[in-house]
User: Fold these one by one.
Assistant:
Number 1:
Amino acid sequence: MELIQFFATSIFSVALASILVALVFGFLIWRRPQAEGFAYHTSKRILDGVHIFLHLENKVVASFVVVIFLITGFLLQWEFAFSFLVGSIITALGSYLGWRLIALPMNRSIESFKSNLPEAFRFSLRAGKANSFLLSGLSLGAIALLLLIFRDPSLIIGYAFGTALVAFFAHLTGGFFSAVADRSEGHAIKKENHNIAKEIDEVGDFVGDVLGPNTDFFETFSLAILLAAIVATKSVSLEAYGWNAVWFPLAIVALQLLGNFIGFLFVRSPKKTTTPTSLSKIFLGSFLLSALLVIVSSVYFVDFFFGDFRLVIVIIIAYLATIFSFLFIEYASLPKQNKKYEADQLILLGFKNAISNGVIWILVIVAAAYAAYAFLNLYGLAILALIFAGVYQSTLLLQGFGASADVSSDIALRLPNCTVNLQANAHFLDRFGALAKGGSRSIALASAFLVTLTLLILYFQNFQNIPSFSAEIFALSDFRVLFGIGGGILISGIFGASILNKVLAGEIMLDQILSHKVSITDFNKSVEMLSKKMINNVGRLAFLILLPPIFIFFFWGPSVLSGYLVGIIGTAFLLATVLILAGLLWEHQKKNIAKENDAEKIADALGDAFKDAIGPAFNNFLKLSLLLGLVIFQLWQS
């Protein structure tokens, strides 16, 4: 009991410190004076646009949350329903507060663009730090508190399900809106609509590059911590360690937060001669310092509490895999040649790059998963997923920094008295922001794959503990399993095609809005119309994910569902990898293509749709589908 109190006290202290650090960074930005005139009014309209989007989204999400809360409460357990409700609320609240921190530099860094580029960089960097530490502290503290209340990680899997549901809506609606809004200027036929189109684009940057990724991180981070704790309670080899093994994952996360905080102190603003492609070098040193602190500290923890140093080996493997993942994807998505392309050449270049480099990346992630499982079985795989989720916290800083820098520089470039020096500084920071947002995609996808792989194996093990299912839950010789695999592949394909159709439908609506003269007073109405379209589309997609697993399990049994989940995890992971890699290359390649070239327009359209909407959507599709399998098992067991 004393050891548990020590763990809990330490973890709560780190969680609280993380939230306080976020508030300090936010205060350092907030205390700076706001810009006046054009910058102030533009910032206010953008904030109003985001609030309109959130109001509409929250109404739809709330209806789903209330229905699921009542169903799970009456049919399953009220503990599950309560933790589900807590997970839903805290995910939405944390994402909103994090976005407000990201938005702080929007009209406070304008003066810095004129003469002090490092200061403008620091504004966005502090916002990114504040956002990542706030979300991490809230997630870690909430899970630790629920563990102390319920004393059983399996009872609070509802918390993860709540975060997954909110993340599904926020990430997909934000991604849809962002993919459509990124091309809004191309739809603004009338010159007077260009500013309105740009502001819709900036609303898209916030909802697609901040609110969506915030909830996705919160979901992955929470799910990784909970899965490691659940596996610890079910592992026979860890029974001797009791609650030490349950709280050890939370201790690792606390160490990662401390390491990231120390590492982030060494991140410095770039010089004006620094190229945006060297962004990784600016953050790599701080990341290595953070990894070294976690590895050294974990040696002490393992020696003191477990005595099994295979855990340290798994942690080292995890950090090596994350470093490779981040750097390799950044390299793979950079433009290869500085020349003009025809449209068909550009499409083939994107897919060729995505397939060839994606295979290498997937093999490395799978090899790391296999090594972790070989060392410590499912607990090793859960710890690997946990380390990736912790590194996701580092890349969330890049995501937040990128969105903040993007919006701030866009406003600065549209100032009526924009000087040549201000333009150069704003363009420089904008290029940094664009690359920063892309660099976190690989860690997010790898984290999603690892937690869903852990969920899949946990699903198998749950049924293997029941004698009547132990020999038939997943056998490729069983036609029911093969039928389920085919169903998973089919649903994954339908899901991807549906997303592409929704993005196209949104672009058609945006074209209709901006092809006419839009006044300032109509800006809110334009955002509302586009938001409703995107949110209603995602609401229909939610049924495509939630209903098939329930129907399959209760009509055809767990064997068919096991095949269905395998089909989903294989197909969705492969599709997400190819789409995100291709989208990133098209996004960066378009900067080397002359304007008015058809290839540039195609690169812009495909890059935005693939990297912002379709590819990341498969992350949430994976996690929600596999998590639903575990929830269904608990429902059936009760």
Note: The chain is about 85% helix and 0% strand.
Number 2:
Amino acid sequence: MKRNSPLRWKRVAVRGYETHVLDNGNAAGATVVFIHGFASTPRHANRRALSQLVANPLLDEHEYRLLAPVLPGFDGVTPLQVGDISLDGFAHWCLDFLVAAGVEGPVILVGESMGGAIAMKVAALQPSRVAAVAVFNSVGMRMTGRNRMSWVYGVFRSAAPRPWRPGQLYSSLRDVGTLGRHPRAGWHASAIIVDADLRPTLQAVKRNGTPVVAVFGRNDRVVLHSSSEMFASELGIEPLFIHGDHRSFLEGHPAIAFVVSELLSLVKKDATPSTDPAAAIGPDARRRWGIEVAGETEVRSAQEWRTERAVIGEYTLSYRVKGVALGESSVVVVGLHGLGMTGNYFTPLGDAIDSGATVLFPDLVGFGASSKPVRVLTIREHAEVVAKWLDDLGVSRVVVVGNSYGCQVAVELGLMRPELVGGALLVGPTTDRRKRQATIRQSLELLIDATRERPRTIAYAFRGYARCSPRRAFRTFRQSLDHHIDEITPRLEMPVRIIRGERDPIVPQGWVDYLADLSPNCESAAIEGAAHGAHMSHPQAVAAVVLELIALSVQRPSQ
């Protein structure tokens, strides 16, 4: 096959309706069928990646045909009947497409995002038609506790194109825009990503012995790390992780061509292929093609942020971490976010803390990427979950930093576990005792604060609230009004620092001074020019207080 073989568009009638198909025009060798994800068709969002794939020198040694059809309901193609819009419905359509396109013999399926789940369904329904499967950032592990708003946030946060790549942005917007032709079909298709449970399908593929390679972006916010591990575990294979997020395929990650080349080589062999081709990929090849090597994941710079997840009883806690290994850090800094926010809200502060401390910023249960139980946890229950999480991590001493509602969780944690908390920093602690019955006033002050925060702070707030249901936000807000932080602060045994932004309309200076006067361990201060999110807008000033508390915590004897 010649290098840079052109991709041509053709039309193929499936079930009496035409679909657009990208075809490299080669009739020899194995057939590779690409199945796209939600609103990322080969005509627009994925066209550049597919062009790079066929032009890659790695594939020059192979004879193959590439077919990339547009699925029903996307890019103007007639949708399936509403009752058929499911993984099974799309899989049966793909099988009919193979017949309509004149494809004989087993094919290599390459699926991206939702297309990965469809590919696995095809392999389970008719294993004789599938020689091997490669999936990239495949969905299929049911998103328990995550509503559609969380999924929309993940798509726009991690699957949306880079704004500094105008061509990719334009192509992706065209795909999204075409959903307007069949909005009902698009809505039902989006539900697949949230509700699909592929576990029985993956187990069937495993029993059939179909070779599968599963590749996931390490920083994917749509398909979380725990889902990736579960996906591979059900298949009994090793997952491959690459540096990237849910856009890895759209951006043409070099591992794509490498994996496709490996599968093309695999199907040419006469011997029975391994069901886990990834296991045969050596460390040198992995490094060359941007795939993580087992045992080297944690060798990354101590200054690199990582997102991890922990199971605490019935809840799953997502958290961001940066710094040296926990066992090598004398003190750990834990940031507890405010109402509707996430652990990402503390990222600027974590970057500003220049010490040997490890920083951990969790998404409290019900917020961000953590579990979202139907019942809204109380402030004390949040503190109990955080304490159990730190115990499971083997942490013996922390400096806890709370902002707004997070301050109330922080003082509960300090009261509950004085031997664990070596120091506490309360940034804009709520709720002023004179405003506990003034719900409307508090809401107005929150709107006023939005006009005083920096754009980056507003962006973080928007992302956080987009992932939090209005019901949860309101009930959490009511809890903050009923909680008496001024009755707990005097009982804390560790050093406490209370600071507020000078322009904070929610937390007045008089309230901060009142809290500080309640205990000899407390001191208060104001940060000039800051509003309610002082740790976001003025991270260096807040970090200086954190470092002071770290020093005091180290000196404080263990109990």
Note: The first strand starts at residue 8 and ends at 14.
Number 3:
Amino acid sequence: MPVWATSSAPQADAGTSPVYGTDFENVTAADSTHLNMGLKNYFDFGNGNGAKMWVEGLDQHTTGITCHSGSRCIGMELTNINSSRRNDFMVYPQSLVTNQLFVSVWLYLPVNWQLYGPAGDNWYGIVDPFFTGAPTFWPYGALHILQNDPSQQSFDLTFDVRDMTGSYLNYWRTNGYSLPGGRWFNIEYYVLFDTTNGAVKLWIDGSLLFNVSGFPTANPSVPSWFTTVGKIYYNTLNMFSPYRIWVDDLEIYNTQPQSSSTTSSTTTSSTITSTTQTTTTTTMSSTTSSTSSETVFPKAVASNGGAAIDTSQSEFGGASDLFDGTDGYLSVPDSNDWYFGTGDFTIDFWVRFVSPLQAVQGFCGQHNGNALFEFLKSYSTIAFYARLSNGAIVAGYTFGWSPSPNTWYHLALVRSASNVYIFINGVSQTLTVTNPIGTNDLGDIASSFTVGYEHNNNAYLNGWMDEFRVSKGVARWTSNFTPPAAPHVRDSSTVLLLHMDGANGSTTFTDDVSSLLVRRRS
């Protein structure tokens, strides 16, 4: 199995490994329809003209899109056609799996993909979880986009199944679900192969949209089958612009990966319309487990008050964020990524204080009523506290520190099991413990996460901050270490990464987590 070229590639839970995986970093085009990938992977151009494929970052058709990980991914296009055409990325993994298939793949659609077609009552495909090979091609199950209101550019996501004679069995349809454009999104699907009682589950960005069973997914007279992990299919007579889709970070499993550990569970519902002889509406419930690792997407970062990029000072990258000590801070919306529970976490960053030193300055935190999570400098003390909504303090640690102004320091706050560590420039500090963290759950605080501000003491940072990172599920350091000598590189534990780079005076801050897949859902 290929080794992932970058740490931002999808990661399975511990104990579950893919039987095949590629991030396309080493793939080369062998001819017009095949790729050198170790399996029988190829593009089927279907009805011919108008179909194009390329290796982004390698071939002459490179468009300059940023791949999900690394510098290479697969691009597909249909254009200049006036009848039904398709362009499929077909994979034949039957030698690697038995009666179960689990696929994870990352896809990218243009920002305004709705504007590129189809026109009128048309549809096009995204993936086909299962498809029997020649000569029948049945049964099959296919995920499509179907336009339900051309005037509003409203689309439904559909999953349809045909039996071994090619007749439609079932047709499941969401109500107005629209795929994201302009960013990478993750599709995962699971197929149980059976000649009479097969099943399919399909997730998009971790949300279970389809969970259907009771139909054939295998043909006893046709042993071969394939799955399409990227698909463009136009059933249209009037495609008026090119349509493109990109594929990256493909993993294939011979069983459905299970969540490694469950910390909390919430139930969500999605409404699916099932059409056979008549149309009925059923509501499917899916249980989404919050695990020790999750799907992480770039977060919106808002600049508030006097927080802006400053190119006069930096530790890395030629810029940092200058906080004015009065009303400037960054805020990131509430997220399950801030709920550390009883798990390990690390918050680290570089900070440089303005002279003269302001007495109370906040580094980061959350606050809602009694509940809080705070990391701050208070006079000549550095403090970390966590308190639940009932007022119970579940963590309390301090140590004395008198920093010098106009000097860069690397600070790290770490939880490792029942221990808390705070490091300055890689040196572990001797902490005064008022409330040991033990096995305490730090609580789920319903509030934004702030950087350069601590709400409970109304404490604003007066100085610069660079390379701010939040890592969930990992204690990056538990003993003295050498501070980072380069900008952070995101990995599967990174849930927030702010490089603080940009033009002087800019108030735009980018979270560099790039839609990391770091969990599986059962």
Note: The two ends are 24 Å apart (CA to CA).
